[in-house]
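Hello, quick one for you while I still have it in my head. No rush at all, and the record is pasted right below.
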Amino acid sequence: MSRRVLASLKVEGVRNLAAQEVRLDSRIVVVSGDNAQGKSALLEAAYMLATTRSFRTRDPRQAIGWDEDRLTVWGRVQAGETSPPLTLVLSRGRGRGDRRLLVGECEVKLADYLGVLPALAMTGDSSRSIAGSPKERRRYIDRGTAAARPEHLLDLSRYRRALSERNALLRQEAADEAFEPWEELLAGLGEAIRRRREEEIAAWQAGVGEQADLFPEAGRMRLAYRGTGSGELREELSRRRQEDRRVGATATGPHRDDFLLEIDGHSLWTFGSAGQLRSALAATTLAQAARVRQCRSSAEPLLILDDLDSDLDTQRLGGLLEAAAGHGQVLAATCKPGLPFPSHVLHLAVREGKVSVRKDV
């Protein structure tokens, strides 16, 4: 398999970044600079190009610059021979905005676009938010699952639409027969989502043990999926319908499930230190990257590591970069340019939204 890299990235209208093209043709790219200069925005643009979503916010329109009506991200992917460029155009509009996706000069549907460049993200903020929020844990599972199996995002989108319809019927006090088609659709999609999540978490469990040299606690980690309800989802939806009517919302399904992460039987969400959380999620993200390579023989992931130096010691930082680069291209950001990085790193600096190659390393 050819080594795949995002060779260059062009941005316009992305947060505080100046309109520019940035060369990224290296296996490891480290972006440094002070806070609020545009480091995370550059990483966010690359992640949005790959996935159409942001790792910083649920609403991708928030990445559009204050005085801009839209953002455009263009990227050239290279794997042996140069592939057609990818283009994401996102405008302010209803819902989550108006979006155009292009591969080369051809506008394509989401299902065709997502298969080109898988991406995974790990940030300092995400470690803390995942620990405190089942919703963020579900997002973490779904991002990792979708990187390996792009059809997962499409099922999630259909599931959310069906869930919205059922919740509307609950609030309208609709007759029972009105629920039947929506609950059948919801159950079919929900079971597929749960099954895929469970399969991916089992694969990650097998992979985290391989990270024990870098993260010793990885050998003692247990990952598990915890579903709501006690039976088939179709039966649960029917059985709980009257109770759901009282609250006006659906209380069971993959939108209420959770992801468990334990060391020696203790929940890291409750008892883990910041360093333990970061190490555990780093080991899990590496396992996710290995899973992407296993599921998608023609693709390697782009690994986004924002706040690289957050809650990890210097020795583990270098080891994390090298290990991540063994699975795909790494795009990392730090406020500490003096950290001891591997010699083959491409160093970029960001100042007031403008990106340049660092000459002092």
Q: What stands out?
A: The chain has a mean pLDDT of 90. The chain has two domains: 1-118+296-361, 133-295. The domain at 133-295 is CATH 1.20.1050.90 (Glutathione S-transferase Yfyf (Class Pi); Chain A, domain 2). The first strand starts at residue 5 and ends at 12.
